[in-house]
Design goal:
Elements lengths: L1 E7 L11 E8 L2 H13 L4 E4 L5 E2 L5 E8 L4 E6 L3 E7 L4 H9 L19 H4 L2 E2 L2 E2 L4 E8 L4 E6 L20 E11 L10 H9 L7 H15 L16 E3 L1 H9 L5 E2 L5 E3 L1 H7 L6 E2 L2 E3 L7 E3 L5 H19 L8 E2 L31
Parallel strand pairs: 2-5, 3-5, 4-19
Antiparallel strand pairs: 1-2, 6-7, 7-12, 8-9, 10-11, 10-12, 13-15, 14-15, 16-17, 17-18
Helix pairs in contact: 4-5
Amino acid sequence: MKLRENVPISTLTTMRLGGSARYVAEVHNLAEVKEAYDFARENSLPVYPLGSGSNTIGRDEGFPGLIILNRLKGMEVIEETSDDVLVRSAGGEIWDDFVKFCTDRGYSGIEAMSGIPGTVGAAPVQNIGAYGQSLSNTLDHIEVYDTKEREMIILGHDELKMRYRKTILNTEEAGRYFVTAITLRLENFEHLEPPFYNSLQKYLDEHKITEYSPTNIRNAVLAIRGDKLPDPAVQPSAGSFFKNVQLSPEEAEVARTNGYKVYKKSDGSFTLNSGWLIEEAGLKGKQFHNFQVSDKASLILINVNAKSYHELDQVRSEIIKTVFEKSGYKLEQEPVEIPSTGFSERDTRPASQNSQPRGKSANEQELV
């Protein structure tokens, strides 16, 4: 196990903010995972697991414990039939590498999630999704180190209580499990059936792509994302900074009545595009507090020259306040934050609670 001391969190996260972590350990196998947690327990240190840091915010106070970097590697096909396939990936693999591994073999179910930054181990924590696909639709089970029982166990799909951007891994059991591997059940189909997510279908039509293979869908998604999303290596960011607004059926009907474009998801739930709400509030492309709302995708908050969490807090508060005053909807941050102590996260309410819509919508804009 490689152990470092006093490591700036800003070097571990793509938003490039955060003070120092007391210790940082890289784990490359299951023995090192156990060793890292034993080290933390013996020294009474809080622990924070981290992948590539693409959806994580560091605070100025730093972290007085041990950050464990998941570097477990390996991808394989477990079982294959003419209809479906089980594929497994270790938690330290890059998510997009795993998507390519699957699409190259003609497997379908995650091709629309191409280009999402981060590691495989982080994917089930927040139940990632994009362009009409969600990890919850394909996840069979995950392998984890249970820090409470001090053993490796398997958690099935239903045990994770997967919903929009939430699972037990980032709610009631946050901090308990370290994801060592995931297994997905994908379809073994070379040709997919439209219609696809609106912006994806539009791209396919415009480019006269009619062979709907997993690889072609993946390439289309990568092209769309590449045109809209900044490279965090060049322009520091944490991906989509706000979650879409979740609506009950009743709230969705009120939103439609007020002229908003409401999306109905495959699971029957309803959402409003937070990026569109930000744009309608006049914030697209705006630069303030050393941050900029991306002029291509309003959900992306770019760190132009900020050095402190305080600056992020200022710009976040201003965006939330401005959008609420314009629309009546309260935005909720998507990236998680490394706490200054323990495992607690920021206390945020679901975006649909106590919100009343105002104003009207105009053009449709979809969330990346």
